[in-house]
Q: What sequence folds into this?
């Protein structure tokens, strides 16, 4: 029988690589925790209707990419393709918006599922860390989120990313623009499917990657020229606040997003070393989403950063993360008595917070020392019958190769002072 493989479009995170993913998640979460965002976790699947209404019936995500299924009990569910709709659903369900403390600021980290055509940077199972600030209309909140994402990427050592910024208007000005764009698109030489898309969701056509389509779009009307005064003023303030924070961005009047809930501020973080899947993160304001899923008016803003693509971006820039050593001390016992003594020492070290590991399985000195080397430990303690008879263990500095005898009762304190 052939062995199983991970499903198409998925991959496993395996040590030592997996440590990078943890570090990336941690680096994105740190500025959020530091800014009043509380941790939220929602189920990996939801009622399919939540995404259909929230993300949008005409989006690729809902029409083509959703893992939707019927349960044995007859429920229509879908694996979550994104986090915003779920987080808002959970906040509404828990009445967080009624606690009189708006905005409700939440962050999350988890797996998301989209049935996409797999390629480098695009997977069917991927991981995001996201943030949502629910229930406040304040340009400073939009600015805060953009600044925190910038801080997260920079703390990882990432430099070659750009922030693209746009405003998608609101329910006053967008319909006017939508019609102007539709009129323009109908005059172009487009295929059936694209024309259909122009009817249902004309803004998505701006995002068409095909060069012949892009060429025809050169003179397309821009939302920028249709924004109402309120949207214009809002956007200007977001721009000023980010600029004052020293965060560089580019205005991208053609930036549209693959989800329908956005209003006003929208942004994307792109990395130039990633080829076609260049978006390492994205987000924006979604002032109407709460009402779309049956809640009260709750203007909100958020983003999600892709962990997989952030790791690829770090690799593309050649950034080596400063990962904590997995093991500082490795214990190599020779014989039964030594096994018991060193195992107790390892337990003691661990209690003190020192990363320690042990040579398991009956191994000879040579094999055990190989394991010690592979572990990356700075120090190895070796003990045999004769050492213990003399009341000592051998402490080997794996960097210098020096070896000294240290008293059995002193070894833990000695290692603590050396590693402290
Ligand atoms: P999104 O732009 O669809 O937005 O996804 C955010 C990020 O997730 C992308 O920039 C990318 O890094 C990563 N990502 C998306 N799809 C894949 C994939 N198939 N493979 C690998 N990485 C992927 C959202 O999901 C919104 N919920 C963001 C948001 C939060 N807006 C407001 N609040």
A:
């Amino acid at each position: 029988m052939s062995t199983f493989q991970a499903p198409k479009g998925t991959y496993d995170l395996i040590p030592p690589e997996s440590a990078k993913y943890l570090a990336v998640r941690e680096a994105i979460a740190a500025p959020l925790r530091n800014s009043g965002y509380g941790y939220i976790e929602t189920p990996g699947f939801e009622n399919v209707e939540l995404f259909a209404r929230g993300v949008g019936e005409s989006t690729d995500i809902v029409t083509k990419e959703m893992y939707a299924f019927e349960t044995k009990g007859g429920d229509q569910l879908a694996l979550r393709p994104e986090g915003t709709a779920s987080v808002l659903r959970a906040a509404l369900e828990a009445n967080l918006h009624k606690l009189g403390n708006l905005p409700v600021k939440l962050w999350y980290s988890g797996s998301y599922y989209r049935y996409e055509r797999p390629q480098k940077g695009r997977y069917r199972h991927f991981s995001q860390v996201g943030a949502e600030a629910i229930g406040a209309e304040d340009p400073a909140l939009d600015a805060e989120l953009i600044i925190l994402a910038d801080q997260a990427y920079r703390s990882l050592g990432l430099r070659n990313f750009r922030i693209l910024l746009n405003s998608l208007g609101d329910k006053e000005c967008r319909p006017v623009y939508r019609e102007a764009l539709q009129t323009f698109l109908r005059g172009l030489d487009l295929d059936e499917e694209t024309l259909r898309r122009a009817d249902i969701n004309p803004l998505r056509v701006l995002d068409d990657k095909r060069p012949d389509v892009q060429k025809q779009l050169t003179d397309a009307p821009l939302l920028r020229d249709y924004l109402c005064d309120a949207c214009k003023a809002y956007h200007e303030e977001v721009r000023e606040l980010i600029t004052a924070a020293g965060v560089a961005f580019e205005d991208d009047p053609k930036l549209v997003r693959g989800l329908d809930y956005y209003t006003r501020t929208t942004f994307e973080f792109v990395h130039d070393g990633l080829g076609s899947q260049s978006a390492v993160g994205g987000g924006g304001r979604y002032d109407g989403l709460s009402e779309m899923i049956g809640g009260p008016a709750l203007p909100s803003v958020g983003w999600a950063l892709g962990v997989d693509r952030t790791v690829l971006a770090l690799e593309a820039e050649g950034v080596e993360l400063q990962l904590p050593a997995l093991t500082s001390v490795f214990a190599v016992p020779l014989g039964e008595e030594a096994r018991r003594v060193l195992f107790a020492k390892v337990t003691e070290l661990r209690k003190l917070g020192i990363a320690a590991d042990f040579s398991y399985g009956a191994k000879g000195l040579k094999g055990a020392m190989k394991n010690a080397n592979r572990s990356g430990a700075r120090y190895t303690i070796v003990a045999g019958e004769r050492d213990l008879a003399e009341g000592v263990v051998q402490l080997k500095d794996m960097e210098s190769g020096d070896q000294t005898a240290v008293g059995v009762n002193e070894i833990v304190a000695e290692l603590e002072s050396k590693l402290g």
